[in-house]
Amino acid sequence: RKTYKIAVLAGDGIGPEVTDESVKILKVIGEAFQYNFQFDYGVMGAEAIYETGNPLPDKTLELCRNSDAVLFGAIGDPAFDNNPDAKVRPEQGLLKLRKELGLFANIRPIKTYASLIKKSPLKREIVEGTDIQIYRELISGIYFGEKFTEENGEYAYDLCKYSREEIVGIAHLAFQDAQKRRKKLTLIDKANVLDTSRLWRKIVKEIAPQYPDVELDFMFVDNAAMQMILNPKQFDVILTENMFGDIISDEASVIGGSIGLLPSASIGEDSGLFEPIHGSYPQAKGKGIANPIASILSAAMLLDYLELTQAADKLRKSVEHAIESKYVTIDLNAEQHYSTSEVGDFIADYI
Amino acid sequence: RKTYKIAVLAGDGIGPEVTDESVKILKVIGEAFQYNFQFDYGVMGAEAIYETGNPLPDKTLELCRNSDAVLFGAIGDPAFDNNPDAKVRPEQGLLKLRKELGLFANIRPIKTYASLIKKSPLKREIVEGTDIQIYRELISGIYFGEKFTEENGEYAYDLCKYSREEIVGIAHLAFQDAQKRRKKLTLIDKANVLDTSRLWRKIVKEIAPQYPDVELDFMFVDNAAMQMILNPKQFDVILTENMFGDIISDEASVIGGSIGLLPSASIGEDSGLFEPIHGSYPQAKGKGIANPIASILSAAMLLDYLELTQAADKLRKSVEHAIESKYVTIDLNAEQHYSTSEVGDFIADYI
Ligand SMILES: CC(C)[C@H](C(=O)O)[C@@H](O)C(=O)O
Ligand SMILES: CC(C)[C@H](C(=O)O)[C@@H](O)C(=O)O
């Protein structure tokens, strides 16, 4: 039996407590389905800066390189956010890890759960039935282009650069996913202003004939930010560049009523990293109130990535069961709620 | 009596029909308040490309330079949107006009009207009472930095650049407005990733002590895109760079229930341009169904800019009266509605 090596980087804030639940559940899955999982822990983020001075120690990077997949918690610490002059920052660890592992595609599913729609800031008729898959390019664009600040702070710049190769890779993934879904792909860009956006449009148009069953359309990012709220059901698969994807996917995360439910996968040629999209939520750290479901659903995406599809489906069903049974944390039900680990146990028991 | 010279650029799509209503109303205001307005028309956008090959003919630019204010309609034409290879595009005219006139601050008020809240995709309790003023930097950043596309389409780039001077100007305007309002200023940036954002933060922090009564806070743009939907009432004045402002202000435009109500002002050292934030809406062109209120409220901002405050207030009251009387276009009331010019007449009559 193959042993699947999973690197666990719990990170900052509520990262460790939600990741603990995912590991607990993956262990139960391993027993139930007869898979060998090996969990190896590494430090990362603010935690790693405090310990080693480095947000991504070499040891952690090596661990990730030698693993089949990375389960990641969260990153960020108010001590750094409130100090924009800090030279070393937790986020650098995550950005470097994405780049070093070549995780070019960040995939975020946006779905609604019937019993939670009432928690959405949007009206039921607007959001009910929303089912979007966002593909965000993750290792290029303005995040990774040349940066410069003049020493007296007279000016600064950031370069947004894209190559054909960088666009082609993720575009194929998005088209392929659209083929398995409702066969619609929307490229979000700002092609009326940016050269990089015009390049995205050009290349995506060139690729489109290889997927004749997929309907391709284009939307300017400002309009997309409106359409996401006016009519999210119009979207199936969304493809976009790094910065626009950061903004649009966080915006979309409000649709279902709780960001505490939303997982993500970051995929490369031979690596995958799986993390909840909520951040480190430092106010909740250590209180046992954090919702573990986003991390648990990220573990389900990890199982998909390892092609353990049956287990992934079972895990998703168990999560749905917990939500329908109202066995949830305080963010989803203020009246009757359970702790982070109680919710984890409930899901584990159902498997 | 001083003559106020107003350049009128009606532009594309529904631009001409909504601008007509504003001019009609400004004429009534001129009579009622004894102001001399002189209206001079110029072409711009797709209309200007068809006529002259140039989206911003020199004659139009000269006209704007020699006027006290510019009343602008809308820009954009599907013939160009569907052809990303077009070398000459309507939007270039607007971008060039902004740059040439030095319109560094784009100001967008986001408000709700009690009788229209039911039209919002968001829940009443989320949006009721929202009152935000967005200051978007308009003539720098990635819009105007160096651009390049390699001739075979192998790569492309866009440079986002900001200087101290560019940030200082708009920051003071935003702080001053906050002082007149609820005394809160939120800078939206991505300072955990971008050098330009860190420069914005640094400079805005330096300026803050000059406005000790204003509470300053910072928000990452991805989080802001969530917060705008989760809790828009937390915002008073928002300050942000060009690209983020484009996205966040369009997103915010959904709050009140109709983008057909939202005006904007673009202000420079000695120029001001006033335009509805809805675009050219080509599907509605010539049908007499376009909502003229966004343009009319832009005319009110124009009056404010000319320091004709009494007239501006009167005009805003007349618009509120029309909305409360349900004397509105089809976008606001499908059951009983009036045409573009009927709504304009109703507002003019009330003045
Ligand atoms: C922490 C930050 C650098 C990161 C990003 O902007 O990519 C986060 O917002 C995300 O979306 O994963
Ligand atoms: C038409 C386009 C270039 C413009 C912009 O992006 O600035 C528009 O979206 C706006 O916000 O005024």
UniProtKB/TrEMBL annotation, chains A, B:
Its main location: cytoplasm. Pathway: Amino-acid biosynthesis; L-leucine biosynthesis; L-leucine from 3-methyl-2-oxobutanoate: step 3/4. The record marks Y143, K190 as: Important for catalysis. It catalyses: (2R,3S)-3-isopropylmalate + NAD(+) = 4-methyl-2-oxopentanoate + CO2 + NADH. Pfam families: Iso_dh. Its EC number is 1.1.1.85. It comes from the Bacteria. Substrate binds at R98, R108, R136, D222. Coiled coil: none annotated. It is found in: Cytoplasm. PROSITE patterns: IDH_IMDH. Residues 5-347 form the Isopropylmalate dehydrogenase-like domain. HAMAP family: LeuB_type1. Homodimer. This is 3-isopropylmalate dehydrogenase. It comes from Epilithonimonas zeae.
